């Protein structure tokens, strides 16, 4: 399918933006995307953001972002689907385009977590799980990942330290990316000595929450021949949420279905895809995502990563700008950031992170520990 | 956590009250207005017995706000004998000694306090079976 053209891309660095507000980040990324789309004026602005309101920041964010960008008389929506917010914002834009309501839509993903103390951010983030039964009883995404990780190790009989290779892959790619938050290679010794968050889950298993924004300008598919990167498949699926289901089944059914549907729309199989941007909010979620998308059989994601299968130049290049783990976990911005990165790969503009000859990209972001999945295929 | 919220949850928090679907007999925890299995609206309260087995355990050392005073604590998934899996903390056990496959039973403990002057929330934790 040909759902939309990506005619502009903007990204901020992922990191600690002390001088920037949440709205500033939207304006920086959104402005860059509009500059690239040269003279195009969107008539709708969709912003994906997970925690702004919860952390005491701007609500109705899309309105304020649009206004500060000088866009007047536009339709605006703010989308909050936990860590899948960015991908969901793109879905909303595609729906508006498909319905014929707009010709050009600006999509921004933005997150600002460094204004709040880490334990407060973790508590806010935990509300993406069941606010009463999980967050209310001391469980957050890290504890959920830890419970699933313990089960993964027992069930698949894998060496706990093999999770290193997923983190190392992300770090190796982030080391090449000037916009990454943790832009250095991760030595195995540092991974092994990392402080425990929730045994067996350590600091180095988690993706660092940080500030950042990304934006794309989407246009209805043009009839004329165009060199613009296309969104060729798009699917969002939500399945029953809960740490229990994740840890017992050790699978991501929403991610599996959403990836399969998006690939089928694009007329591709996973083995045909050049670049994979997945939701590595932790090494555990990275492993389950790799398996959900079909890059490795169940229980074999760690071996595959250890063999270099996910490296740029490897069999299935993934997390090519550092992923959430090392580019930085920009929460609600993640889904848009992944699309921007995938589009740069297909344009051949990924610089030192370039996957040679990249022709298609699968980008997937997940909310509520994988219960909500949004996948896009670019070609 | 305001008072009304805490009050609303007291049956499930203190007595493990969930629901039984009168149509498809599914048991679910906590209480539901609609059966998650068949979608039916004819549900009766069902108090779970409180016995169960740990499915997975993790020792938490960095806790979200509201739980820092309790670290280290063991977070667990407990499969109740009637079927549903509950995420809860373990009590009366050294976190390092907790492991999957342990027999546990429900006890009522302090779960968290919101700030120095906020309400104290009580609810279920699970302790090794036979512990005092």
Explain this structure.
The complex is a heterodimer of chains A (379) and B (132). Chain A has 379 residues and is of the alpha/beta class. Chain A has one domain: 3-Layer(aba) Sandwich (Peroxisomal Thiolase, Chain A, domain 1). Helices cover 36% and strands 18% of the residues of chain A. In chain A, a hairpin with a 4-residue loop joins strand 10 and strand 11. In chain A, helix 3 (85-98) crosses helix 13 and helix 5 (141-156) packs parallel to helix 8. In chain A, 65% of the residues are buried. The mean pLDDT of chain A is 96. Chain B has 132 residues and is mainly β. Chain B has one domain (3-128). Chain B contains two helices and eight strands. Chain B has helices at residues 3-8, 10-15; strands at 17-21, 27-28, 43-47, 51-60, 73-80, 85-89, 103-113, 120-128. In chain B, the strands form two sheets. Chain B has a five-stranded antiparallel sheet. A three-stranded antiparallel sheet of chain B has the order 2-1-3. Chain B is globular and about 45 Å long. Classes of the chains: A alpha/beta (379), B mainly beta (132). The interface between A and B is large, with 38 and 35 residues.
């Amino acid at each position: 399918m040909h759902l939309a053209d990506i005619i502009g891309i903007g990204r901020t660095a992922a990191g600690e933006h002390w001088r920037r507000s949440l709205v500033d980040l939207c304006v920086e990324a959104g402005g860059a995307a509009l500059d690239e789309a040269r003279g195009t004026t969107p008539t709708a602005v969709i912003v994906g953001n997970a925690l702004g309101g919860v952390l005491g920041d701007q609500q109705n964010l899309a309105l304020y972002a649009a206004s500060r960008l000088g866009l007047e008389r536009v339709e605006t929506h703010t989308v909050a689907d936990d860590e899948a917010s960015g991908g969901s914002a793109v879905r909303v834009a595609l729906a508006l385009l498909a319905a014929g309501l707009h010709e050009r839509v600006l999509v921004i993903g933005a997150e600002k977590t460094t204004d709040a103390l880490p334990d407060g951010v973790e508590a806010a983030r935990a509300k993406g799980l069941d606010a009463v039964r999980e967050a209310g009883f001391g469980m957050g995404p890290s504890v959920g990942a830890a419970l699933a990780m313990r089960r993964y190790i027992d069930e698949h009989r894998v060496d706990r330290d093999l999770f290193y290779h997923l983190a190392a892959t992300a770090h190796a790619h982030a080391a090449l990316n000037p916009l990454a938050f943790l832009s250095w290679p991760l030595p195995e010794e540092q991974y092994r000595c990392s402080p425990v968050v929730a045994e067996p889950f350590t600091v180095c298993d988690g993706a660092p929450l940080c500030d950042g924004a990304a934006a794309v300008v989407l246009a209805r598919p043009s009839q004329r021949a165009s060199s613009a990167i296309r969104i060729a498949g798009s699917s969002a699926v939500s399945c029953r949420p809960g740490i229990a289901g994740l840890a017992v089944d050790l699978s991501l059914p929403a991610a599996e279905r959403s990836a399969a549907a998006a690939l089928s729309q694009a007329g591709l199989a996973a083995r045909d895809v050049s670049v994979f941007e997945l939701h590595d909010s932790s090494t555990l979620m990275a492993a389950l995502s790799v398996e959900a998308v079909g890059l490795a059989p169940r229980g074999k994601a760690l071996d595959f990563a250890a063999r270099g299968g996910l490296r740029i130049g490897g069999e299935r290049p993934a997390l090519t700008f550092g992923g959430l783990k090392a580019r930085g976990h920009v929460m609600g911005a993640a889904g848009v950031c992944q699309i921007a990165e995938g589009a740069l790969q297909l344009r051949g503009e990924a610089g030192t992170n370039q996957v040679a000859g990249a022709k298609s990209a699968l980008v997937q972001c997940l909310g509520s520990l994988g219960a909500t999945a949004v996948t896009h295929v670019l070609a | 956590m305001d008072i009304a919220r805490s009050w609303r949850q007291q049956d499930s928090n203190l007595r493990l009250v969930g629901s039984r679907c009168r149509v498809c007999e599914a048991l679910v925890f906590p209480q539901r207005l609609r059966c998650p299995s068949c979608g039916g609206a004819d549900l009766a309260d069902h108090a779970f017995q409180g016995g169960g087995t740990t499915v997975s355990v993790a020792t938490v050392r960095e806790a979200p706000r509201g739980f820092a005073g309790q670290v280290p604590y063991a977070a667990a998934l407990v499969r109740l004998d009637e079927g549903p899996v509950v995420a809860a903390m373990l009590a009366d056990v050294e976190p390092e000694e907790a492991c999957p496959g342990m027999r546990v039973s429900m006890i009522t403990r302090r779960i968290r306090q919101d700030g120095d002057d906020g309400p104290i929330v009580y609810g279920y934790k699970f302790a090794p079976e036979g512990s005092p």
